[in-house]
Amino acid sequence: MEAEVAPVLALLAAPLSIIRAVAVQEVTVLVEILPVEIAPEEIVPVEIAPVEIVPVEIVPVEIVPVEIVPVEI
After folding, report:
1. Rounded CA gap, 4 and 29, in Å?
2. In angstroms, rounded to a whole number, what is the distance separating the alpha carbons of residues 11 and 13?
3. Close Cβ partners of 22 (under 8 Å, ≥ 6 residues apart)
4. Between 65 and 30, the higher pLDDT residue
5. CB contact set of 11 (below 8 Å; sequence gap of 6+)
6. Where in the chain are the domains?
7. Nearest-angstrom CA–CA distance, 7 and 1
8. DSSP the chain
9. Which of 22, 34, 40, 52 has its Cβ near the most Cβ atoms within 10 Å?
10. pTM of the full predicted structure?
């Protein structure tokens, strides 16, 4: 366990440029090519629902005069 933790602690104490260099050297990329199965196109029927028109009531807006009071600082 201690042998696994020591390199990590050394990296934490190292400058960022060294960490980047070590990280690039130790990365191994494994690529696995998986077979891809292409399913035949299936036509799905689309149901178009009728649009319901809802009447909108327009409410008049009341304009209230606002008095601006100067504030002394």
Report:
1. 21
2. 5
3. 11, 14
4. 65
5. 18, 19, 22
6. 1-28
7. 11
8. -HHHHHHHHHHHHS-HHHHHHHHHHH------PPP-PPPPP-PPP-PPPPPPPPP-PPPPPPP----------
9. 22
10. 0.17
Averaged confidence pLDDT in the chain? 70
Backbone angles phi, psi at 17, to 5 degrees: -65, -35
User: Whose CA is closest to 14, among 26, 22, 3?
Assistant: 22
Q: What is the pLDDT of residue 20?
A: 56
Which residue matches tokens 């008095």?
67
- Angstrom CA distances, 54 to 40, 57, 60, stand at 42, 10, 19
Q: Name the residue type at position 22.
A: V
